[in-house]
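Class, discuss our next protein.
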Amino acid sequence: MSDFLTPAEVSNAFIGIGKKKASIPGFKLLLLGILAGVFIGFAAHLATTVATGWTIGGASALFGLKKFFVGAVFSVGLMLVMIPGSELWTGNNLMTISLFNKDITLKSMMRNWVIVYIGNLIGSILLAWMIAKMTGLTAGAVGSTAINIAAGKCSLTPLQAIFRAIGCNILVVLAVMMAVAAKKISGKILAIFFPIMAFVTAGFEHSIANMYFLPAGLFSKTFTNAEAGADQVKITALTIGNSVQNIALVSLGNFIGGAILISGVYWFLYVRKSNQA
């Protein structure tokens, strides 16, 4: 017996997965969404910590290697989402396979997406506030890194944000599909690790991760030491308004990459009824 599902099998599996997700009670869905926001936030804070201190004589050192390690540790976020179980909006973009196949309605899918998105936002901001305000972990060098990461995201042009987000969710939903295809925990971990490492290392944009990164940067600005160590040229871009705009644009790009490009193509290739005749 194979250790993994074929592309056709895993694509068709998302019909049942989408139907199940569409029927989850609202309060349970919200709690699962909050958990996913916290899990991705843990990974984002870990990535921020790992990204801190990679300089020699004031210049960035080993840029590519640093990005690789940041991406490697960030992959723990989707592992926490997929294996213990929670609801992540970017992964739930695969529900459009069920929608295209007319197994769920647009209303039921949007209900899931709205509740999960709100839950992800609550969980991400709550963790960012807790780490910054309750523990002071971002009061120094880590806070400076958090500010720089957030300011960099706020400095993206709209097209940069959208296209980086498209690339991101292509890889994220492929990681979800591969994790579902794997039948063993070890296989699921490997299936998640490589695509997530790839999107972070490549500099792509994930809306739910940004729900943590941007508030973390804003909260860190309240610490004098953190702000003093940040990039003073970019820091002016880090505002609430620019943060909201970034999350909106990145969400749009994630939707295009995950819900349309990957879900649509795999539904067309493996799920639509004419392929099953």
